[in-house]
User: What shape does this take?
Amino acid sequence: MKTVVIKYNAGNTQSVLYALERIGAAAEVTDDPEQIRAADKVIFPGVGEASSAMQYLKARQLDQVIRELTQPVLGICLGMQLLCSHSEENDTTCIGIFDEQVKAFNNAGNKDFKIPQIGWNTVYDLRTKLFNGIAENSYCYFVHGYYASKGPATIATTDYIQPYSAALHKDNFYGVQFHPEKSAAVGEQILRNFISHI
Amino acid sequence: MLAKRIIPCLDIKDGRTVKGINFENIRDAGDPVELGALYARQGADELVFLDITATNEKRKTLSELVNRISHHINIPFTVGGGIASVDDVNVLLQNGADKISVNTAAFKRPELLKELAGEFGSQCVVLAIDTRMEDDGEWYVYLNGGRVRTETKCLDWAQQAVALGAGEILLTSMNHDGTKKGFALDITGTLASLLPVPVIASGGGGNMEHFAEVFAEGKADAALAASIFHFKEVGIPELKTYLSEKGINVRI
Assistant: This one.
């Protein structure tokens, strides 16, 4: 079993690598298309801004490499958003696996909702093996100012200002808006599910 | 629903915790990694590691420590203490820190906040403010660990800092710090209701009621404490159960 973590300019790769180590699933960080294509599992992390991340990926044709992957792929946070069709963050056309749109949180002046959302929120309506053994309304750690709308690919929902997609799934592609690598035991179980059961 | 956060703070000197004593269930409470991991298992939502080392060797020791922390701890953590440049922050984030906190250096050169937010994003830039209410009833900003007074008011600096890119405010009331008589509800509430970013209340938490107050009345998004956790005067699991029973949304 070989897992790779895609290296690019919006990576939060260290934390993801260490989390995989903790669950006994050591991975390699790479931006080499051959290594990415040859891996059993691909993790596409991300912390940062959508348009500069897409520019970087396109310049290296990594967007096309990702689009054509057939093994299980897990996008995390910005990685998940980049797998959607479009992001309002600097009006960015994304990779387009998921049809869901990425929009900016708008609290309409209600300061009870700070933007970005930072902290632990619950996930519910959990579907697919990614959430095996995870109780409804478990807490995961989120840090984001943009969210993916709900749609046919939604496999977990979180409420912040409105319900949105906490996780997405289509074919071999999965995405989570939260950071499993920072979500304590719940996050480790989700990573373990991705590595072992998908 | 977004949970209110409980954040233990660990003071670090030369790679060791300063106040971590009195723990039977870990081998080495002086080891920030062991103590941090214990808090994570007990349900802490985040950790803050505050480096108070004053030597030139500091950066290397700290970055090695941060690397070890991120290997072993499965919740987010912030690192602070003497951070003054983009390079300082880069090393810490590369070693796995989720956020960094800046204080005096940002006050002396507010552009630092803009540089950090531009380079790494506001979500990892925490501005720590030490503040004291004086006889005139106003809250003033203090620097250098509370030793140097400024003429700047706390709210003014907080608003300026957020406009420049601070993504979160860690607010310590010097009037309350160490008293165990409760958090500063007024200034915490002022900042929390006027700022568009989360506010972490610090200083004065002495019992479980104080935490309930700072969330309910102080409108804080998170509460930080050190010695009451280190000396087991308040346990994190009991605290969270208590808060939950009071109707405050916490992660259990």
